Amino acid sequence: MALYVWQMCLWKVVIIFTLTEAVSLHLDQPKVLLVSFDGFRWDYIHRVPTPHFKYIMENGIHVNQVTNIFITKTYPNHYTLVTGLYAENHGIVANEMYDQNLNKTFSLDGMDIFDPVWWDEADPLWVTNQIQGHKTGAVMWPGTDVQIHGLYPTHYMIYNISVPFEDRLAQLIDWFRGKEPVNFGLLYWEEPDRSGHDLGPENPLMDKVIADIDLKLGYLVEQLQKAGLWDTINLIVTSDHGMAQCSINRIIELDLYVDRELYTWIDFTPVSAILPKKGKYDEVYNALVNAHPNMTVYKKEDIPDRFHYKHNVRIQPIIAVADEGWTINQNKTAGKFTLGNHGYDNTIKSMHPIFIAHGPAFKKNFTKENMAIVDLYPLLCHILGIDPMPNNGTLKNVQELLVAEKVIITENLHVEIVSQDEINSRGSYAWLGILLGSVLVTGFLLAFVQQVTKSQMSGLNIHRGEMAQPLLST
């Protein structure tokens, strides 16, 4: 009888430890899918019917105005989304860069973008996620095909513009459902940025492009539902920037004001990064500072603090910032002109991106008026339950987007639902599993001791002699 009691109690302990591990694992493995539709301006959802965007907004959250970082370009803002840092801190200060210390150039048209030296000033979320024991899947997100701090994402696709959206999504879903599933996925799509540049955002032809993005979002939701992921995954749909309408009649020609032999043109428009030749700094600055009423020229040390854009060697000694809708070229025949562009002052509304989210971590039918893009990173870390790296964001600023976290224990163990009224600021669910597991194990161990004691007491005369034997022989 005593042996039977021992076995039953041990089985209870094993079950509880298994349950505790399962609960802890479940709580430690929330899932996040971060999607970027490049150049999706915040107000595009209002100009044509976008039922799938509206569906997520009604069943999740929506932020009306997201202030991205300066400069409002693709690479700087995509790196901010996954680091929570301003450009001056993460080092990807533009799409075109020159580092005087390294004597190296970064250009989207070359292979330099794969050199880790450009990216190693920060720790993107996929690196931190993997260092802390998890797995990441990345589909063409800027920087994910670079070995940053010695690590690639667990799974990743090298950038290839010809791969359809549907194929990109299918690969991500496979990674989320694999034998060793990822907990964090990133998905990038080039539109509507490409069409916005070519057509201009105010062109009626953009309506069809926006409607197609809505269809792609609907397809994404449908596929997550089919895969059984929709109710457990936290989906965040955002972008890096918006788009402003440009005109061939709004071009600032640098050649009219300064000899191009006096400087190197590092980055172009609408924020021109200018590196004067040796001994020509004052001449170049003085020629440009009051050259055009729609262009503001700064010495590096005078760049406004609100831009967070001067404390990095990759920021050039002089920058020229065009007003919204204006283009800076050397002349009307040299340089690139597009009908739509971005990169302007990050307080301009046309530069702001979309931001919606849905999932177990988020409230339903909730709208927040504004947020800063740097605050997304601590939010992501909190949802994923990982410790963030130093960043410029603040979780408190976006905490109202989240529901109170809950832990549910199975009914057959007669444990009630435990709610957490205050969200854990450290961003980890693990302590809840540990706490509940400890309580459950302690309770069953007490029951175990009680059962064994009763059994021993009932057979005390039988075992007394055996118990009286010394523990060690002499």
From TrEMBL:
Transmembrane segments: 429-449
Stated name of the protein: Uncharacterized protein
Principal cellular location given in the protein's record: membrane
GO MF, one annotated term: hydrolase activity
Record organism: Scyliorhinus torazame
Superkingdom per UniProt: Eukaryota
Cofactor(s) listed in the protein's UniProt record: Zn(2+)
Compartment annotation: Membrane
Membrane topology term: Single-pass membrane protein
Signal peptide range: 1-22
GO cellular component, one term: membrane
Family: Belongs to the nucleotide pyrophosphatase/phosphodiesterase family.
Record keywords, A-Z: Glycoprotein, Hydrolase, Membrane, Metal-binding, Signal, Transmembrane, Transmembrane helix, Zinc
